[in-house]
Amino acid sequence: MRKTDKGTVVFVCQECGKKSLKWLGRCPNCQQWNSFIETAVIAPSSLPPSGAPLNPPMELSQVVITATDRFPVPLAEFNRVLGGGLVAGSLVLVCGDPGIGKSTLLLQVAALITQSRGKVVYVSAEETLHQIKLRAERLGLKGDNLYLLAETNLGATLDQIQALTPGLLVVDSIQAVYLPELDTAPGSITQVRECTLRLMHWAKQSGVPVLVTGHVTKDGAIAGPKTLEHIVDVVLYFEGEPFSAYRLLRGVKNRFGSTNEIGVFEMKEQGLVEVENPSLAFLSQRGEAAIGSTVVSTLEGSRPLLVEIQALTNPTSFGLPRRTANGIDFNRLLLITAVLSRRLGLKLGNQDIIVNVTGGIKIDEPAADLGIALSIASSYRDMPVDPHLVTVGEIGLSGELRAVAQLERRVNEAARLGFKRCLVPRTGSNVNHAGIELIPVTTLREAVSVGLIKSATTGPAAD
Ligand SMILES: Nc1ncnc2c1ncn2[C@@H]1O[C@H](COP(=O)(O)OP(=O)(O)O)[C@@H](O)[C@H]1O
Ligand SMILES: [Mg+2]
Ligand SMILES: [Zn+2]
């Protein structure tokens, strides 16, 4: 290591945290250009001193679980994603794009927690007290027991709030706070990591749960360090399309529960409102018997959700045909298009294809394949999809329909919302269902002939 007037220095990649003794133009670990920054080497300040007394080993049978170790948040959608509540001394990271509503969500949670847990400290390193107050007024939040601090110096903040003994600490955001003893800028990987370690240590030692927000970069990583995810106990992603008011809170990592749950919110003037019946909300703007529109029953974790998939095909005016996938995987769209062309003879080679999932939802499971294919076929043939139909099914390369997980849940969600028929893959279609007719099909060709309404043919039903 090199000694300079700054002390011992090392070069650290700001993307992935790789260290190097000399400056590198490109990181050999994450391939990022120009990401190395000279950083002074300091002893990790957030770790307990090595001389601190160790806890003695304890027999498993002697460990007592107290009921107070986990307390519910009075916001059911948030609670569900946490796995039933906040655990004492846990560090929870809520990440998302700027403007998605992280500060709003955590201010609401902070105010709600004061009702059951007493004092809550909300530290904002990005906004002034005035701005927070304006937001709180818009959200209709009362301020009793909610302590605000507009501060970026994390070390000083933690020392100061210790005496308050809060029931919850919120820090907004991890990229904006800093520790003055490190000589790098806030938001640099060293700062972000050390601040997180400091918060982790503070949470564990005080038993107070800590909620932290983090921004994500364009490519979806938590800005700066991906390494952050390894440190914290729980990682939640708050996502949604900018043009849609719906927001999904998704568990990505949870040391205290399943990561299979999602919470659904709607961003309104008065803040984030829980969506109790997401399927109904996502389908609310759907018209009758639309061309190029299919309802699929998708599964988010253990929760079935009905969403509408829309497709539009249009002859390519020049150049190569274009494919646009919003809310579904682009490669999945290519696969489905290829199967429709080769196995059903749809001439999509000179058609632009746009596929949208309404409500700003992202679907990443193949069970939506059939719905995507049916929407494309519907648009191409100009024949509407049966409006009382829900579809579920993965498409194989030879045009066969493959079984999907947890069909029963999906079918029953469709029945609950009043759909009359459900197209399902024949394999695994023997499930309990009430109030809805199951139509088992073996191939995509069969599914398309059942799902499209023939009498309404108006356009070129070329095949
Ligand atoms: N007056 C308002 N009425 C309705 N929605 C608003 C209003 N002001 C802000 N918002 C919503 O709040 C969002 C900003 O939320 P915020 O919690 O600050 O996001 P983040 O902390 O993730 O950057 C805006 O994108 C907008 O959707
Ligand atoms: Mg914010
Ligand atoms: Zn790197």
CATH fold-level assignment of the largest domain: Rossmann fold
Question: How many domains is the backbone divided into?
Answer: 3
Bound small molecules, by name, code or SMILES, are: adenosine-5'-diphosphate, magnesium ion, zinc ion
Query: Gap between N and C termini, in Å?
Result: 70 Å
Rough outline: globular
Mind telling me the CATH class of the largest domain? Alpha Beta
The secondary structure category is alpha/beta
Radius of gyration: 26 Å
Indicate the percent of residues in helices: 25-40%
Q: Spans of 5+ residues with little confidence (pLDDT < 50)?
A: 456-463
Biggest sheet: strands side by side, in what order?
9-8-10-11-7-12-13-14-15
CATH superfamily of the largest domain: P-loop containing nucleotide triphosphate hydrolases
Total of DSSP H or I helical runs spanning 4+ residues: 11
- Average pLDDT reading: 87
Biggest sheet architecture: 9 strands, mixed
Overview features:
463 residues, Rossmann fold, Ribosomal Protein S5, domain 2, nine-stranded mixed β-sheet, seven-stranded mixed β-sheet, 24 strands, globular, binds adenosine-5'-diphosphate, binds magnesium ion, binds zinc ion
Structural topology:
Layout: E1 2-4, E2 7-13, E3 19-20, E4 36-40, E5 70-71, H1 76-82, E6 86-87, E7 91-96, H2 102-117, E8 120-124, H3 129-139, E9 146-150, H4 154-161, E10 168-172, H5 189-206, E11 210-215, H6 228-231, E12 234-239, E13 246-254, E14 262-268, E15 271-274, H7 278-283, E16 293-300, E17 303-315, E18 323-326, H8 330-344, E19 351-357, H9 369-381, E20 389-391, E21 394-395, E22 401-402, H10 407-416, E23 421-425, E24 437-441, H11 444-451
Parallel strand pairs: 7-11, 7-12, 8-9, 8-10, 10-11, 16-20, 18-19, 20-23, 23-24
Antiparallel strand pairs: 1-2, 2-3, 2-4, 5-6, 12-13, 13-14, 14-15, 16-17, 17-19, 21-22
